[in-house]
Amino acid sequence: MQALLKKIIHVLGSQSLAFVLLILLGVLTFVGTLEQQHMNLFDVQVKYFESAVLVYWVGGAVPVPMLGGYLLLTIFAANILVGGIIRMRKGLSTAGILVAHIGIVTLLVGSFVEAQFKTDGQMLLHEGESGASYQSLQEWEVVLRAVEADGTAKDYVIPEERFKGVEDGGSARFSHKTLPFDLVLTGYARNAEPRPARPHERRAGVDADGFLLQVLDDVGAESKSINVPGLTATVHPKNGGAAQRAILHGTQALPWALSFDAQQIQIHLRRRSWDLPFTIHLKRFVHKRYPGMSMAKEYSSYVTKTQDGKARDIHITMNEPLRHDGVTLYQSGWGPEGGKPGAKLYSIFSVVANPSDRVPLIACIIIAAGLLLQFLLRLFRHLEAEGRRRARLTETKEIA
Amino acid sequence: MNRAGALPLLVLTLLVAACGDADRSYEVEDVRTYRGKAERVPIGTTSAERFGYTRAEPPAKPTFTWTTPDGWKTWAGSDMRAASWRVEGEPETDCSFTLLPGRAGDALSNINRWRRQMGVAPVTAEEVAKLPRAKLLDRDALYVNIVGRYDGGMGGAPIEEGRLLGLLLELPSGGLFLKFVGPAGVVAAQQGAFEELATSIKMASPGGTKDEGTPRRAWPPKMQWTLPSTWEQRAERRGRVVTAGPKGAANVECYIYPLVGDGGGLDLNVNRWRRQMAQEPLNEAQIRELERVTVLGKPAVLVKVDGSFDGGMGGEGVETAQLFGLVSANDGWLLTVKMTGPAKAMASEWDNFRAFCASLRD
């Protein structure tokens, strides 16, 4: 057993494995790049670089199983940790390499943290508006908003990964002890449109309040449109009342609303949303155009950030984002398109919350420091050797 | 397989089955306090309203008043009828007053339907035009008097020597029919009472017939326009009122496409166009801010979208494209005007597009 463990550690820490992993990562990057002809960027990222294993269809006909970026980088991190740090011969001559390896492992750990905990999305504010949350561009969620008579409310949030597996006849039931009903979600479609049911469909009872979901093909790379999901929600009151059913869709103008005594339950299907640790108030949005053109030359937002009662004025420009508490707000856009002079404008911020956002910088500094140390050590050794060689030469000449 | 081997296999099978997507249960873990005051949504909001479709209310039925002739009595006829009468003591008689909406109210086909019921040959449109007239709802209605063997109509008993008196009034919203059928002798004796009944009928509330007197709208809606001097009219396409575009720029086209009813509404159409251009849909507030103009006497929304055009309904996509659009809700239909093409070619067409939209008239 011990021998087997030793063998595994030997293989895990070997340079040959590092070589193979780098080749596989190169192939994965190449294939993932090719795939962007047919799939949108987000889907490629999920399939190739955030997966453990995947199947690549050569010519759409021959399946080739591959290791995904997530698994390859995990093995690579273990390979460097075992071979490049733990088992590496330690001494002054390898100190720089060791530091560089620590930097690489730091980078990979940072990437892991990012993959696990990073959230990103957008926040749109009109002049004079405040915002304290941002919305994902790719992920969705079902939210049960329980509104009390006095207007206070609680959001019960169901993330997409909980219900996106219910496409093919399956269902997912959600409950909470303070909710007066159970919610069952079925028929999830990643891209769909609601449409009025036809008379025979109504007669067959397959509609929900006269509507059905028309499932659409997923949006491909060539279209660059967006997928808008839909699903069927059924509410089962805990008091034994009749179940009610409705379709939820990503573009619905209003949530599905039900009454339970004085409480109103609103059921939303919306872009996944996260709260910010502070509030942003857009005081003024400024944009300049190139002379004689509608193309924007420069745009920026004058905002007030308020946290714990403390307000601070900040100017966010395209090159100067707001960084605070692990959250970064970038100035990424504005609207409305074709807005006339004097029109009320809105500003769009890209928001990224990444607990490891500084890790790449730190890792790069460590790697650079390690390499520099290694080069300097080599240089010193070389100079030392050269000095000795010259001394020996001088001695030889003197003797001669 | 021995029992010791079968047990782990069974457990494994159950575990695999449990891991499937079939039916799962979860406790909601993420509960957040909503910041601010939540707005209530009207209870009873329909899916149609949530998805931007206007609720299709069934048209109200018109109601009528009349004076039942002496010796006649009303009776409960079918739901299709506005009223039914009979001559007292003559159970074979049947007088019905019916409104048939839309094309079902066509005069020629209804007269020939009656003639078929009476076992006589059909007539032509020219012969119908020569029929005598009598008053119904203060209008001149076609008056038919047919003698023959009545086949009983829709499930009634046949009458060997029957007679049918009928008044038929064509309205834009359909046809009004006053039909009196029975044994020939009885009907002849009651002809005066029938005509009295016809003149006594008045409309109490118009219901779905409120558009009386206005012509039935042709489809697609008729309208006129003026093309910019640099544009040309192109071949007709199904469903479009007109297709046009700049001369010498075949990849740029503009067309008027009317949609029945509310056509899905303003938001749905604007965001459909934005999706075609690979752009994020606009929310309600953003749509409210779109530029407004007046076209065909109605407020209209102008849209200008840059992006990558996916070809719309099966057309050819354009990588760097521009889309101009106009949406306007009219009475019973939605006007859409759409222009697409490569951004470079579209750059100088915005004013032409606006001028074309502004030129639309009835």
General description of the model:
The complex is a heterodimer of chains A (400) and B (362). With 400 residues, chain A is α+β, with helices and mostly antiparallel strands. Chain A folds into 3 domains: 2-117 and 358-399, no CATH class; 119-131 and 274-353, no CATH class; 137-273, no CATH class. Chain A contains 8 helices and 18 strands. Chain A is extended. Chain B has 362 residues and is of the alpha+beta class. Helix content of chain B is 23%, strand content 36%. Chain B contains 10 helices and 18 strands. In chain B, the strands form 3 sheets. Chain B has a 7-stranded antiparallel sheet. In chain B, a hairpin with an 8-residue loop joins strand 12 and strand 13 (242-246). Mean pLDDT of chain B is 79; it is low at 1-21, 54-58 and 208-217. At the A-B interface, strand 4, strand 5, strand 6, strand 11 and strand 12 of A face strand 1, strand 2, helix 2, helix 7 and helix 8 of B. Strand 5 of chain A pairs antiparallel with strand 2 (30-33) of chain B, so a sheet runs across the interface.
Number of strands of chain A: 18
Overall mean confidence score, pLDDT of chain B: 79
- As an assembly, this protein is heterodimer
First-to-last CA distance of chain B: 85 Å
Query: Helices and strands of chain B, in N-to-C order?
Result: HEEHEEEEHHEEEEHHEEEEHHEEEEHH
Q: How big is the Rg of chain A?
A: 29 Å
> What class, by secondary structure content of chain A?
alpha+beta
Strand count, sense and closure of the main sheet of chain A? 6 strands, antiparallel
Helical content of chain B (DSSP H or I, runs of 4+): 10-25%
Q: For the terminal residues of chain A, how far apart are their CA atoms?
A: 64 Å
Q: What fraction of the residues of chain B are assigned to beta strands by DSSP? A: 35-45%
CATH level 3 topology of the largest domain in chain B:
Protein Transport Mog1p, Chain A
Beta fraction of the residues of chain A? 35-45%
Q: Quickly count the domains of chain B.
A: 2
The most extensive interface, with participating residues per chain, is:
A-B, 65 and 53 residues
Shape of chain A: extended
Please tally the helical runs of chain A, counting DSSP H or I stretches of 4 or more residues.
8
Sheet with most strands: strand arrangement of chain B: 4-5-6-10-9-8-7
Radius of gyration of chain B over all CA atoms, rounded? 32 Å
